[in-house]
């Protein structure tokens, strides 16, 4: 009997001491899985160089990170939310309702999105947004008329592309990458092929045109990948004719298996993305709770360290991993130094 | 057909009937038995072949993770760079970040390459960057901060090589692929070949892989399973502390005291059913109850342990009841006969005899919980970079951590192929743990089990 009592009391002691150890001394970060590798690189270097403990970095996606960020102010809420998109009005409102009013928005750099296929596969070397629209849209313009997408081969609408069946692996709708793909590729392709104009002439209203332009066909030629890029890679690996959408950093780590295509004639690289020539890229952000600066030790130092030239500059470890350095980094640094929140001094 | 032939046989047979003559029917039966044996052997052989393939591929893919490439580099700790004031003031030395140390290491390696007489078109110390792990700078910096008197001397370091160099020596990175890889060039591989010949680049046993913390995606060569082993350990403590007393108490009551009626039958059926519930169901229950309702911290081993307790309980209850049942009733009767109360009979006589069986069941339940991944996905034990060792008991339970299977899952997702190798290596460690637990269970059973 006595050992029941013993285990019970050990457990009770553990629980009590756990609640007593409340004062938090490490920075807590959560959010986008795209930003996660960068944040963990910074957290690691931060732990090595400062006397503060290594910040705790978790993933979970931009939206869930911002949701946790907006839960309120206090030690049991996170200090920084990573996001692969800008915070939405709705989220700012939700934050304000929970008492999180002063948010510092920090842009850490840009992420490129590339289109790649199996290295020994057919010659996908150059894409235009129009190709992707023709390949994936449910309705395309053919011979001046809007018809249900009849294409089964890439070569049917662009003779320069290989004559293989269309099989595209694109990020699922829960990914921030999908949004960029829709905006910067499909929407542009919609316009370029003239489908948008045809829809206008057909008397559709603006919203439904927008929706029609970024939707994808559902006959199995466009495949949503809800997992990570590793899953897309596995699909491409087993399907020589497939084309997938990847992050630049992921591609650069797997150049032995993938070959990348140009978009609108520009090859993706950190240089072409920084200069804005390569069209499919997006900014990456993190958001800092100003109320926690000075309360959580090391928070401001971490934010400053994140965007310092040594880390986020063109030769830093983040750029090495695949982040495209922000040409306006100095402005961002000043913003953190002065703790400029959103809505003031923009 | 057999019916038709039977009377004929029995009519003809009696005259010559002998047990030694093998008639057609016996031959047929013998053949059927031989066939059945062959099927059985074939089934077992197929299973064995798959087992060998599985273990073989795990070993083949994962054994590389236990070796790591190191470079032996003498680094000149330049006082002009590390301690400008010259006063050996520890605070001033700490101001120099790892970025200040990187050039010194690159210079050191460059000098080694020159001294070894390796011809290379790479003419700048900065070109050595791709061969050195980013962790090297922190290693040198820590050494200097610990012992500032080293500044000004040339100290020998054994630093990690970058994951690409490591991959080249392990046949994961090939020359023809490197052309398109911006993380390393063919020229670097030429240098590596030269340094291997000179004994400066060596592949050695990698203890950090077993004891170390997880690392960021830019340095897979540094990543280890140590922190998540601790995470798993704390989870198992919770599982053991909760499921053993609760499970044993429940089974003793059900087996020895509870009246046999509809209600206890219902409970019994439900416990058996619970053991077969997919573990992900317990995961979502854990998420709803422990995190969303009770507001326990996400990713904490405490929550993981509580969730796995739910999963392990039925296993323990079932095995405990089985071993209580196997204690012969004569023991109980004898105890009751000399005047023991029912409780005394159970706790003094039945329980000690059932103990080996209970422990075996518990260990097997724990082993099952140790390898479980699905519930952990839901309570946030993946997607977390386990870089901090827990400091103390409370932090071990409450601070976010990973667990072994979750860490393996995490590694398999990462972009750098070097992490893929580590995922296989992690599986080997996990299997070693599971086998150890199972062997302990077998030994316990062999040594203490009594048969009647």
From TrEMBL, chain A:
Record-linked Pfam families: PBP_like_2
Residue ranges occupied by any PBP domain in the UniProt entry: 17-310
N-terminal signal peptide: 1-22
InterPro entries, alphabetized: PBP_domain, Phosphate_ABC_transporter
Keywords: Signal
Keyword Signal (UniProt): yes
Keyword 4Fe-4S: no
Coiled coil (UniProt feature): none
Protein name, entry field: Phosphate ABC transporter substrate-binding protein, PhoT family
Organism: Roseovarius litoreus
Lineage of the species this protein comes from: Bacteria, Pseudomonadati, Pseudomonadota, Alphaproteobacteria, Rhodobacterales
TrEMBL record, chain B:
Membrane protein topology class: Multi-pass membrane protein
Gene3D superfamilies: MetI-like
Annotated ranges, domain ABC transmembrane type-1: 229-441
Assigned GO CC terms: plasma membrane
CDD domains per record: TM_PBP2
PANTHER family named in the record: PHOSPHATE TRANSPORT SYSTEM PERMEASE PROTEIN PSTA (PTHR43470:SF5), PHOSPHATE TRANSPORT SYSTEM PERMEASE PROTEIN PSTA-RELATED (PTHR43470)
Name of the protein in its database record: Phosphate transport system permease protein PstA
Native organism: Roseovarius litoreus
Species lineage: Bacteria, Pseudomonadati, Pseudomonadota, Alphaproteobacteria, Rhodobacterales
């Amino acid at each position: 009997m006595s050992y029941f009592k013993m285990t019970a009391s050990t457990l009770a002691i553990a629980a009590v001491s756990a609640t007593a150890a409340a004062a938090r001394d490490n920075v807590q970060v959560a959010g986008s899985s795209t930003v996660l590798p960068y944040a963990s690189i910074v957290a690691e270097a931060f732990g090595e160089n400062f006397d503060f403990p290594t910040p705790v970095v978790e993933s979970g996606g931009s939206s869930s990170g911002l949701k946790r960020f907006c839960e309120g102010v206090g030690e049991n809420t996170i200090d920084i939310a990573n996001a692969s998109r800008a915070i939405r009005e709705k989220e700012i409102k939700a934050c304000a309702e929970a008492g999180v009013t002063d948010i510092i928005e920090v842009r850490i750099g840009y992420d490129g999105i590339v289109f790649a296929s199996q290295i020994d596969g057919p010659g996908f070397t150059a894409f235009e947004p129009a190709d992707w629209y023709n390949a994936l849209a449910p309705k395309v313009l053919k011979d001046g008329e809007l018809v249900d997408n009849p294409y089964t081969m890439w070569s049917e609408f662009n003779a320069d592309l290989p004559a293989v069946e269309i099989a595209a692996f694109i990020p699922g709708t829960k990914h921030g990458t999908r949004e960029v793909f829709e905006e910067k590729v499909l929407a542009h392709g919609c316009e370029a092929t003239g489908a948008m104009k045809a829809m206008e002439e057909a008397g559709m209203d603006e919203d439904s045109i927008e929706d029609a332009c970024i939707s994808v066909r559902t006959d199995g030629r466009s495949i949503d990948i809800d997992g990570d890029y590793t899953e897309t890679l596995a699909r491409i690996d087993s399907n020589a004719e497939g084309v997938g959408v990847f992050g630049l950093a992921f591609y650069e780590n797997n150049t032995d298996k993938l070959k990348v295509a140009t978009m609108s004639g520009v090859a993706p690289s950190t240089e072409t993305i920084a200069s804005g020539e390569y069209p499919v890229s997006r900014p990456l952000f993190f958001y800092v709770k100003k109320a926690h600066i000075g309360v959580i030790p090391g928070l401001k130092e971490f934010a400053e360290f994140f965007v310092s030239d040594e880390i986020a500059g063109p030769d830093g470890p983040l750029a090495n991993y695949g982040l495209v350095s922000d040409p306006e980094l100095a402005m961002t640094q000043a913003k953190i130094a002065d703790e400029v929140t959103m809505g003031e001094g923009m | 057909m057999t019916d038709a032939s039977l009377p004929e046989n029995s009519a003809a047979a009696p005259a010559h009937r002998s047990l030694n003559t093998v008639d057609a029917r016996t031959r047929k039966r013998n053949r059927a038995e031989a066939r059945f044996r062959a099927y059985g052997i074939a089934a077992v052989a197929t299973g064995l072949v798959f087992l060998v393939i599985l273990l073989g591929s795990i070993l083949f893919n994962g054994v590389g993770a236990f070796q790591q490439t190191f470079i032996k580099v003498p680094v000149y700790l330049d006082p002009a760079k590390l301690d400008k004031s010259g006063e050996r003031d520890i605070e001033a030395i700490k101001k120099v970040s790892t970025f200040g140390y990187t050039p010194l290491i690159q210079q050191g390696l460059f000098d080694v390459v020159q001294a070894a007489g390796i011809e290379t078109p790479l003419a700048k110390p900065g070109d050595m960057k791709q061969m050195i792990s980013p962790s090297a700078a922190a290693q040198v910096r820590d050494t200097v901060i610990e012992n500032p008197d080293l500044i000004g001397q040339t100290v020998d370091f054994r630093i990690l090589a970058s994951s690409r160099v490591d991959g080249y020596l392990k046949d994961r990175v090939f020359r023809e692929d490197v052309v398109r890889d911006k993380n390393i060039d063919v020229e670097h591989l030429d240098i590596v070949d030269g340094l291997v010949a000179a004994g400066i680049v060596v592949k050695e046993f990698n203890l950090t892989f077993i004891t170390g913390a997880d690392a960021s995606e830019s340095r897979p060569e540094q990543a280890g399973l140590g922190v998540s082993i601790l995470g798993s350990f704390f989870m198992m403590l919770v599982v053991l502390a909760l499921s053993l007393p609760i499970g044993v108490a429940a089974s003793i009551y059900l087996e020895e005291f509870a009246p046999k009626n509809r209600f206890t039958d219902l409970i019994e059926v439900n416990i058996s059913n619970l053991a077969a519930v997919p573990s992900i169901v317990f995961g979502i229950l854990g998420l709803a109850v422990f995190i969303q309702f009770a507001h326990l911290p996400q990713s904490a081993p405490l929550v993981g342990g509580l969730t796995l307790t739910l999963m392990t309980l039925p296993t323990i209850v079932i095995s405990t009841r089985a071993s209580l049942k196997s204690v012969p009733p004569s023991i109980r009767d004898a105890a009751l006969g000399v005047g023991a109360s029912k409780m005394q009979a159970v706790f003094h006589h039945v329980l000690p005899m059932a103990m080996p069986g209970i422990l075996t069941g518990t260990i097997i339940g724990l082993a099952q919980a140790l390898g479980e991944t699905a519930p952990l996905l839901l309570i946030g034990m993946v997607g977390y970079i386990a870089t901090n060792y827990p400091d103390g008991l409370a932090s071990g339970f409450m601070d976010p951590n990973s667990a072994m299977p979750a860490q393996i899952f995490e590694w398999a997702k990462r972009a750098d192929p070097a992490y893929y190798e580590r995922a296989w290596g992690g599986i080997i460690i996990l299997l070693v743990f599971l086998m150890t637990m199972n062997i302990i269970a077998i030994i316990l059973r062999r040594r203490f089990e009594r048969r009647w």
